[in-house]
Design brief:
By secondary structure, this protein is α/β, with parallel strands linked by helices. It has 29 helices and 21 strands.
Length: 815
């Protein structure tokens, strides 16, 4: 019903709002009451009901419930205790996911996009969801356009790539339409809101950063593969287990209980819970460090990053610039202060460079401009044409003068070596156009020297990444010498290896350059994307930090994108992580949290999959050998609770900053497969070599001890190196196990071992260790061999990818 109310609005008289006065309070109230408000789209994050539903309604929970009902109908109540474990898992999962949701939403309020509007003749900032139709918005570079609108005054360049896929900046003048979801590259304007809410061209784009979605992470792929494989095997083996036990047992009670034990053993019921819980706790911890996680699995991706691309401004430096010097050329008579002051007023830009110019230069005599070209990241310059017959230019000397660069090269080089940014101020009689200015007609006037303060913790942060084996590339639009010197100051290894990206024309040159150089200067936005793409083709997991509109394409291309909260709307909405305190020094903590999550999930998965492995293999063996299953549900519930569920819960939230190497599946397989195979072999051998144990019912006790000892072995391996916490955890689990075995044998349905078979029991127990060691070696060799094959296939794939262009033709033209 709510949706109908939004669509079926009352008619309203549209007005051509005065751009200096905006709407009045009565006009705003009328539009709001009639539904002409830019209401927030339906929250794309998971609702509370959705969280409960996704945790409760799962295939494994359904199978567990069905099996539990069968046990309650035909078996003993204690053999249905596994349903209690499943219920606790579900409750913990729901609580942690809700806590995570609340933490994210609380931080999201701090980054909720705002927009400047003119209302009652006053410029004010409001929430984008309170915009109404006919509002007058004030848009500047970096803003993401929140509502379809018409340019009423001014002009700007807009990137519509989020809507169309095209990376070219589109010029918008009075009368042109601005689409929601696009973002302002340069220029300023006042625009009248034309559509709101669901009527917008893309009502979901603005909130795309809040969508609940899981990136294609290795962790996610691995767990999904495990679930798919186990589900397939349960559907095939499960019915055969019931059929086999029905042949070998005479009562429905025993058939159900032994069959249910086999099937619940195959289900890694706590694996998904522990994964979700570890990630949720990671989100909560990061929120306490002022880091907003906009995509859950990006925590893992950042932990795996081995190549980090940094934008200098706002990352290594604070982004608060100031003019250090103005060096006049050729004894010019031009009033530099007045002309630049008028240029700044005319361009009305809000990037850090222009804010520094606005602070230093001011107009003493009003000059009327007839045309202007806002700063363009591709052309690296801005220009204003005044009514004195000249076009005045501010930009990168290499791009303004090109072949005449030698005229100012000494000044530029001297200041660049000090780590300063250098702008050239020049003029030409030519009109502004899409074509480059004729360098022969350009007259140089002055060089503007600008500084940018280095962040206090930048050196420590870069040192941390170097120690962790993460390579750094600095990608900047500034002079490469300037960037190199700043990189040297913060101790970046290889800072002297720099290149001017304007000399990199082809895909092959860029591909080779990312191997050779550490610092890239004069990089255009399309080239930033190219560099990230080339690094990914070379097999790197690439992280990218940025805060400006010119970083958006590279941020979206990277494996893990990180934005500063003080940056542009477009950068924040395009990133997976947002540093709310704008502190580059927070990244080591974020990486450490990611490593904790991934390493602990590997630990937990190793514990859970021992049971899954031996349950599947043992069930197949029992079917082939035509003998009954030795376990009942209470046996698996006991071991799973004491030696798997309880310790994995604590291991999942423990600090763990170990560097991640190797794949998730191969690590888990190396840890769990040997134990699972060993348990299966020993139980099968007991059936073959000691049939008297089967006849006396002692096979169940031997099987339980075999499973328990192997689970102890895996738990000990997982806890290494033992410290006070992990040692205490291992000791506690051991004590609980022996208390139950010694004082509650009837409850867990094990028998006392008679003296005549005690030696046989000891032989089997002693054989466990050498057997698991041999199998561990064999499994490791097999997995390593498969890993080598996989690397070769990956290398061949990368070679094929080299034949593909890194850019589309249009992007290449922009570059």
């Amino acid at each position: 019903m709510k949706k109908k109310k939004v669509v079926e609005k009352e008619n309203i008289e549209r007005i051509d709002t005065d751009i200096t006065k905006g709407l009045s309070n009565s006009e705003i109230e009328e539009r709001t009451s009639k539904g002409y408000i830019n209401s927030a789209p339906k929250n794309a994050s998971k609702s509370y009901l959705s969280i409960i539903r996704t945790n409760v309604i799962t295939l494994f929970n359904g199978i567990n419930l069905l099996l539990g009902i069968l046990v309650l109908v035909y078996g003993d109540l204690k053999n249905a205790l596994f349903l209690g474990i499943v219920t606790v898992n579900v409750i913990i999962g729901i609580i942690q996911e809700i806590r995570s949701k609340k933490a994210v939403e609380k931080l999201s309020l701090l980054t909720e996009p705002k927009v400047k509007v003119i209302r009652n003749s006053i410029e004010q900032e409001i929430d984008i969801h309170t915009l109404v139709i006919d509002d007058i918005m004030v848009l500047k570079a970096g803003n993401q356009i929140p509502s379809d609108s018409i340019v009423a005054d001014g002009e700007l360049f807009v990137n519509e790539s989020l809507l169309t896929g095209e990376q070219d900046a589109v010029k918008k003048q009075v009368g042109d339409t601005l689409f929601s979801g696009s973002f302002v590259v340069s220029g300023t304007c006042r625009a009248r809101v034309d559509k709101v809410g669901e009527d917008n061209y893309s009502s979901k784009i603005v909130s795309s950063a809040k969508k609940y979605k899981k990136p294609n992470s290795e962790l996610m792929r691995g767990i999904q593969w495990i679930i798919r494989t186990v589900t397939f095997l349960i559907l095939i083996v499960g019915p055969l287990v019931f059929w086999n036990n029905a042949k070998n047992l005479d009562s429905m009670k025993n058939i159900v209980e032994t069959s249910v034990a086999s099937i619940i053993g195959m289900i890694p019921e706590g694996l998904v819970l522990l994964t979700s819980m570890a990630l949720a706790v990671g989100v909560i911890r990061l929120s306490k460090k002022n880091t907003l996680v906009q995509e859950l699995y990006c925590i893992e991706t950042l932990a795996r990053v081995d190549m980090l691309c940094l934008d200098k401004t706002g990352t290594i430096t604070e982004g608060t610039m100031q003019v250090e010097d103005t060096i006049k050329l050729h004894r010019t008579k031009d009033d530099v202060n007045n002309i630049i002051g008028n240029m700044v007023d005319a361009l009305d830009d809000n990037n850090a460079t222009f804010m520094a110019l606005k602070e230093k230069f001011y107009s003493t005599e009003k000059m009327n401009f007839t045309d202007k070209m806002p700063f363009n990241s591709t052309r690296k310059m801005s220009a204003v044409r005044f009514d004195d017959g000249f076009t005045y230019i501010l930009g990168a000397p290499e791009f303004v003068l090109k072949g005449r660069m030698s005229e100012v090269e000494d000044i530029v080089s001297e200041n660049a070596k000090k780590g300063y940014r250098v702008l050239l101020f020049a003029k030409t009689p030519e009109e502004i156009s899409e074509n480059d200015f004729n360098i022969k007609k350009i007259k140089t006037i002055a060089v503007i020297v600008i500084s940018d303060k280095i962040r206090e913790n930048a050196a420590d942060t870069l040192a941390y990444f170097a120690k962790q084996g993460v390579n750094i590339k600095i990608i900047s639009g500034d002079n490469p010498v300037t960037v190199s010197k700043i990189a040297e100051r913060v101790g970046l290894k290889g800072a002297e290896k720099y290149v001017d990206a304007s000399t990199l024309i082809t895909d092959e040159q860029i591909f080779d350059a990312v191997k050779k150089y550490t610092v890239f200067g004069r990089v255009t936005p399309p080239q930033k994307k190219q560099i990230v793409k080339a690094l990914k083709l070379q097999g790197h997991t690439v992280g990218m930090t940025g805060d400006g509109v010119n970083d958006v394409m590279a941020l979206k291309e990277s494996d893990c994108s990180i934005a500063m909260a003080s940056g542009s709307d477009a950068a924040r909405n395009s990133s997976q992580l947002v540093l709310l305190d704008n502190n580059f020094g927070s990244l080591p903590y974020v990486v450490a949290e990611g490593r904790r999550v991934v390493n602990n999930i590997i630990r937990a998965a190793s514990l859970f999959l021992v049971k899954t492995t031996f349950s599947i293999l043992l069930a197949i063996c029992m079917i082939v050998m035509d003998i009954k299953t030795p376990f009942k549900p209470i046996h698996l519930t006991f071991i799973s609770s004491v030696l798997v569920g309880f310790p994995s819960f604590f291991l999942a939230i423990e600090p763990n900053n170990t560097k991640i190497s190797g794949s998730f599946l191969s690590k888990v397989a190396k840890n769990s497969l040997p134990a699972g195979i060993t348990i299966t072999i020993m139980i099968v051998l007991a059936h073959i070599l000691a049939p008297e144990l089967v006849e006396t019912g002692q096979i169940t006790t031997l099987s339980l001890y075999t499973y328990a000892l192997m689970q102890f072995f895996v738990l000990y391996t997982t806890c290494k190196p033992l410290d006070i916490k992990r040692g205490s955890l291992f000791g506690f689990c051991t004590i609980v196990f022996f208390i139950v075995v010694l004082f509650m044998p009837n409850f867990i349905e094990i028998v006392e071992i008679p003296e005549d078979t005690l030696l046989l029991f000891l032989v089997f127990i002693v054989m466990l260790y050498p057997t698991v060691k041999i199998i561990t070696l064999a499994v490791s060799l097999l997995i390593n061999f498969m890993g080598i094959l996989q690397k070769k296939l990956k290398a061949n794939k990368q070679l094929k990818n080299l034949a593909k262009p890194l850019l589309s033709k249009k992007e290449a033209q922009n570059g």
